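#struct-help
A.M.: can someone run this one for me? Single chain, 351 residues.
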Amino acid sequence: MGHKIAKTLFMTLLIGTTALAGCLETGDESDDSDLESLVIAFSIKDDYTNVDENPQKFADYLGEALNMDVSLYPIDSEGAALQALRFGNADIAFMDGGAAWVGWQQYGLEALAADQKSDGRTYYSAHAIVLKDSDIAAAHLDDDPSSDPFSLMAGKTSCHTGWLKSAGMLLPMGFLIGNGYANVIGDANDVESLRTTITNFFNEDASIPDSGTPYYSYSGAVKCLSEGVGDVAFAKDSTISAYCGNEDASTNEDWCLAESDYILLPSYGNAPSHPVMYNPQTSDSVTMNLVQAALVDMVNTDEGKSILENVLNTPAISATTATEHLASYGNLIEDVPGISSYFDSKYEITE
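D.P.: on it. Structure tokens below:
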């Protein structure tokens, strides 16, 4: 009887061991066939004279950090990046704030990270700048809550950085329109109405410069203000210090006034840096969390720092979400007439 029990136990153990071995073998085969991969939508040049700028180095770095097969999906525009994520041809993509906002609003894309500015922020603040002896500056500095400096801009001459520039036009006009200071003049679905909206709220002499002209860009807008052409300039928080606030005054622009002559009104919004976007419908959250951690950690390795500098043009990357990174920007620009149609056209988005 004892011999029969021992024989039965042996056969049971043998069958169990064989079955376990079969399960382990099947698991290994499954792991090999289901190797995780990541596809990055990225603008790629035909040739790189500086090998350190080749984005393949970025893909190889992430592949090693994530233990995944990481490849590049070539794109040639922000619109192509949006479409690559939208249709699942890529898992992540770096894109500008406007494209990211469109992707978030129209296609449900999400952000997992954003590149940093030189000061470590993932945004810059937009400001109106006036001269200290102006009535707008007085209303801002008088500690009287009933004094509204923005209302005093009506009828003044404005200095913008250029047509449809973020800090120089979209953000301030979105603020003025959204808060009832300025009224949209013309077709609310046509971005060209913004030009008549500007000249109606300010005046016909509003400076909306073309590229290459004296008052174009951030420096040009402040130059317009400094030379008395305009009464208020729209730029970003670092503009005055960059052009007129250097320790060695001889390195300041020759049109600069004393730095103390410029007054920045309170910021009305932030322009986001380039976020890393993904599609939650085609990418799993576990993988995206790993990608996020790997991107943030790049600053902690020599190779990662080199790629950040030479390939991604940023000192570091921060974790974020679409709401955190894009909401302030979107809440302002959505009041600009025709902005959605403009972005659709700019990024060549078609249904």
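A.M.: thanks! The radius of gyration is 28 Å.
D.P.: also worth noting: Residues 92 and 311 are 16 Å apart (CA to CA).
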